């Protein structure tokens, strides 16, 4: 049975509006090569996207003990690195997940997390 893993892409700096067409083309090529490697390994990418910078985000502290939810607009200055995107992989197991995640292009680090199998919905 296939297992699902989330690959979180952490970047030390993520300012997509400042990237020029050449930088976008280079990033696109690297991510296309990653996708091809996943397919060649018999696994698949079942989801993934690039994220807007933290300035476009909102941090939400849910309501607790009768208090109202708190909404804080980004950027979040205490953040040393940002999650710039993610992939959701369907693989044979943890070994393949690690091998494929290590191929994901980034200037920072990657975080690999197995998903819980929640069964049929």
Give the secondary structure arrangement, pairings included:
Elements: E1 3-11, H1 21-40, E2 44-50, E3 58-61, E4 70-73, E5 82-91, H2 94-101, E6 109-114
Antiparallel strand pairs: 1-5, 1-6, 2-5, 3-4
Compute the number of helices: 2
Largest sheet: 4 strands, antiparallel
Name the helix and strand elements from N-terminus to C-terminus, one letter apiece: EHEEEEHE
Counting copies of identical and different chains, the oligomeric state is: single chain
Q: What is the terminal separation in angstroms?
A: 17 Å
Number of domains: 1
The CATH level-2 architecture is identified as 2-Layer Sandwich
The CATH class: Alpha Beta
What does this structure look like?
- The protein is of the alpha+beta class.
- It has a single domain (3-62, 69-114), classed as Alpha-Beta Plaits (2-Layer Sandwich), CATH 3.30.70.1060.
- The chain has two helices and six strands; from the N terminus they run E-H-E-E-E-E-H-E.
- It has helices at 21-40, 94-101, and strands at residues 3-11, 44-50, 58-61, 70-73, 82-91, 109-114.
- Strands 2-5-1-6 form a four-stranded antiparallel sheet. Strands 3-4 form a two-stranded antiparallel ribbon.
- Strand 3 (58-61) and strand 4 form a beta hairpin.
- The mean pLDDT is 91.
